[in-house]
Design brief:
The protein is mainly beta. Helix content is 9%, strand content 48%. The protein is built from 5 helices and 28 strands. It is globular and about 65 Å long. This is F-box protein.
Length: 384
């Protein structure tokens, strides 16, 4: 270890010698990798050496795989139609009980977070095809995808975003329902980041006329829950072979009046079925024969709470072996939607609300692992 002297400065008491410790780059990298990702941005301003280390691709890969970088929550505030949308996201550290605002620029202020992958957000509108934006909220850099040539009026727009490990490319898949020449159309399109145009996908008839929600990237594929009337299915889209697969529900699966969500439980993709005062966890499994996907019931809990229209919950993630993180929503006396975050211990039938300063009254929640990774492609149309 060597000492590197800076020029002396003075104060009221005379000269003051200022020194910094000149450490090997490997040691600097090791120290920085143990800091929260958002704090590393501040460290970049300390000196050129720290800046260069934090921008190095090997360091960023190390950071993304570090045990010191736990998954956080990312909240997007939701407001009524008569109020302007807040110009920020909220990054929440549950363990430390802290919330930090991340500014949003005006161009993506009204867009919804549709999906996330490797620290990037895919943001788009529910009612418009353009723009679709890939955004890193930590570095605040964005990529705008090529606009669609479709001129129809859009009724519903859903977008999934994930990483294809076979090609090393990110892909965006969207489904939308609209009217074209007075005819209702349902289309699926795909684009790889860096390409200049969308390609239309051929889809099985079983999903062509269904609306989807809760899209999630998992292990090289996108997953939707899709419905038509009271009929609900799960759809998998493999990003490598670009094929759709439909996961059939068991005959005794009853989805009417149930809240369905996809989360990670113990390293397995799991469908959470929450209805009335009962919650069921169904694991999505690949059959040994034929490789088809199916649902397997893992556990059922009595929540001892009658979840309904006025009081509902969604499962955000598994916190540990004994508990889950819930987003609990309710209507207040002013008929406004409010949410809070609670920890649920099913075996003890206990609920513990998190008291975290700075949370918005109503929000959408996403499990999110911050990253300093640069955007995977650059495409900025001239009309945006």
């Amino acid at each position: 270890m060597r000492d590197s002297k800076r020029p002396n400065s003075t104060n009221g008491n005379g000269p003051v010698r200022r020194e910094i410790v000149d450490l090997p780059l490997e040691m600097i990298s090791e120290i920085l990798s143990k800091l929260p990702t958002e704090s590393i941005l501040i460290c970049r301003a300390v000196c050129k050496t720290w800046y260069d280390v934090s921008k190095d691709r090997c360091f960023i890969n190390k950071l993304d795989n570090s045990q010191y970088q736990p998954t956080r929550l990312l909240l997007k505030p939701q407001v009524g139609r008569d109020v302007n949308a807040p110009s920020y996201l909220v990054l929440v550290d549950i363990e430390k009980g802290k919330a930090r605002q991340i500014p949003l620029d005006k161009m993506i202020l009204d867009l919804q977070i549709m999906c996330s992958c490797n620290g990037f957000l895919c943001m788009a509108s529910r009612k418009k095809l353009n723009p679709v934006v890939i955004y890193n909220p930590i570095t605040m850099k964005r990529v705008i995808l090529p606009p669609s040539n479709m001129k129809s009026t859009v009724l519903r727009h859903e977008v999934g975003f994930g990483f294809d490990p076979s090609t090393g490319k990110y892909k965006v898949v969207r489904a939308y329902t609209g009217f074209s020449s007075r005819r209702k159309v349902r289309r699926f399109e795909i684009i790889s980041l860096g390409e200049s145009s969308w390609r239309e996908l051929t889809v099985p008839q079983s999903i062509a006329n269904r609306d989807g929600w809760a899209v999630m990237f998992w292990n090289g594929a996108l997953y939707w829950t899709m419905s038509k009337g009271i009929s609900t299915i799960i759809v998998q889209f493999d990003l490598t072979d670009e094929e759709f697969n439909v996961i059939s529900f068991p005959r005794h699966f009853y989805s009417r009046h149930a809240s369905l969500g996809l989360i990670d439980v113990g390293g397995h993709l799991t469908l959470v079925q929450c209805a009335a005062n009962v919650v069921k966890f169904w694991r999505i499994m690949e059959n040994e024969v034929g490789g088809d996907l199916s649902l397997s019931l893992q556990v059922t809990y009595d929540t001892h709470v009658n979840w309904g229209y006025a009081l509902g919950c969604s499962y955000v993630c598994q916190m540990n072996q004994e508990s889950y993180l819930l987003q609990v929503g309710y209507w207040n006396h002013a008929h406004q939607r409010c949410e809070n975050l609670s920890q649920y211990f099913p075996k003890k039938v206990q609920y513990s609300e998190f008291q975290i300063p700075g949370l918005p009254e109503s929000f959408k929640t996403l499990c999110f692992k911050p990253s300093l990774a640069p955007l995977p492609a650059t495409y900025v149309p001239s009309d945006w």
